[in-house]
Fold Myosin motor domain-containing protein.
Amino acid sequence: NNSSRFGKWLQVIVSNGCAIKSCSVTDYLLELTRVCKQGPNERSYHVFFQMLAAGGDLGKDVVFMEPQQYNYIKHSQHNAPGIDDKQDFEMLRAALGALGFSGEVQHEIFRVAMGVLTLGNVEFCEEGEGCRIKDSTPARDAAGLVGVPFEDLQRSLVARRLKVGRDVTKALRRPMQAEHARDSLARLLYGRLFKFLVARINDVLSEGADMQGQYFGILDIAGFESFDVNSIEQLSINLSNEHLQSHFNNHIFKMELEDYEAEGIDSVATLTYQDNADIIALLDSRASVLSVLDEEVSVPKANDDTFHAKICRNFAQHARFIAPRFSGSRQFGVRHFAGNVTYTADHFLEKNVDTPPDEAPALCMASSLKVLEDIGGVIEQEIIEASAPGKRKTRTVSSSFRSSLASLMRTLSEAEPHFIRCIKPNQLKAAGSFQAPMVMDQLKCSGVFEAVRIRQSGFSSRIAFRDFLLRYRIVVPRMTARQIRQDLDGGRCQIDCVKDFCKALPDALSV
């Protein structure tokens, strides 16, 4: 009922006296597809239902209907057990107020969110070689909510600008293309509104404070996912979990084995772990599934079929890649560390494009809402930076996410990690129910059993050399203990001192 559907890294800067100086939040991979479409028995984002529950509290200039009358959420789970949308809306308003948002800015935020919801009701029909808006009422309502002229919104949906050399012309969209443009605009507005709020939160949390110094961080990210239908969102989430598992392996297993080897412990050969480096290479390298996806975005006439055919051809022999059994299928599989997952390549290219519609910056900057005007300025600046020499011409969701993920992993590698594994006891979200097979699967997938096994097979007790000598010197002959202590203080190799000490222990204990 309350999954955030995005990953976040919370970094808290502390003083030498361990007082909190400042903190910041970095978000990863907000699930924007949920804005326009949800899976069976799932809900869209809570804010939509909270606003509709608030009704007239939003103001006279906000048009609203019943949830089932909005295309974007009419198939959604309207009522969730244990959730009071109206009460939660009041809590949301209080939280925004605590962050310094004035009543006017809050009103603009909710207008943009309602505008996104209303955009889904804009439908199209064929007209000549292009299309037109079937009923102007939803489009006028949406335009009014986001503070832009109806004509500007209409033009941005039914046609797109084409730049040929120095000339700019327009290409008419067919109804389905216009629907894609509508959904793309809705996702863009929601995503940028989300980033606007995160940026404001960071401004408040770090205002006037030094962002340098010691810190502790908390990473909260979705766990391994495998549904009936898995798309690029699940592939990205599972890639992040592969990287985190590799980080886990490095600290729990690899470094443990390196310690044993360095100290000449013979039982190293009995300790093994499943290395997932080949899975990461399959998904996230210069020659990987996601690099092929990024290439296809820039290829004329490329589509999901050409992408699927290319990865099946390129990776058919890879031990971790599972090719489809039947021709004509857009499915492919990956043997993840947590188990096999079958992905469906439908809409991979469409979802991977992160280029804002050409009209989006001008549309936002023409808005009477200050919030949208600011968002439009940010988008325009990003477009300018992306068009600079040497920059990738087509920005993708995959490349942006992988770049952020690489930065996150560098940050994690510089810190001392503590791992918390969250295990769900049942699928019912109910107290007092323990589904053993489900729990067992999670323990296997998270590497908990491997960690326990290596601790059991290895040497889990860690005592500093000096502490070891001080603890047990009373049981060895006084002269031996004194000599070893002098050797240790004199800089003699600690391991040699401990070995001499251990040789004296059996005699002292009459073993």
